[in-house]
Prior knowledge:
Blueprint: E1 5-11, E2 17-21, E3 23-25, H1 28-43, E4 60-66, E5 73-81, E6 85-95, E7 98-102, E8 105-109, E9 115-119, H2 126-150
Antiparallel strand pairs: 1-2, 3-6, 4-5, 5-6, 6-7, 8-9
Amino acid sequence: MAMPGYKTSKKNEQGNPVYKNYFYPTTAEFRKKFYDNIIKAYKSNAKEVNVTSGKDKVSVSVAMYPCNFNEKIESIGKIYIDKCFVIDGVRVIEGEKGSFVAMPTKTTEGKDGKTEYSEVCYPVTKEFREQLYGEIMKKSNEVREQKKEIGGFEPIRDFGDEKLPFR
């Protein structure tokens, strides 16, 4: 079972590329339930997988952090779903027409040879997208205000596998 991921610029001890997941379960209990249901659906040719964390209503929270490695990215963060599943690599980007939310994307080469971006996860309904993106922008604005108040942030150093706000 492999979740969608991306290749980083890092190498492991054997010199092989290190890959990171865009999204992943955060608890062993939910991971087992989630993966078991996906395998079960695969074996039975099911079109959908329904897995819940045991709640009637899903809780969603957002954590955004300053980005110090790209001037165009105002903040980068995660979306937590029921504190058991994470979407990583959500960004707020400064664009020509103002800031916008960018969900994790993968790049491919289009028919004309130009790079194309496609989101690997995204809100399905307009209502949820507006609610989620509103919260992401709110948290990003809070990060921007904090940065102004203290005169900028130090660049984040590489901590290896230690606990960081990024996976």
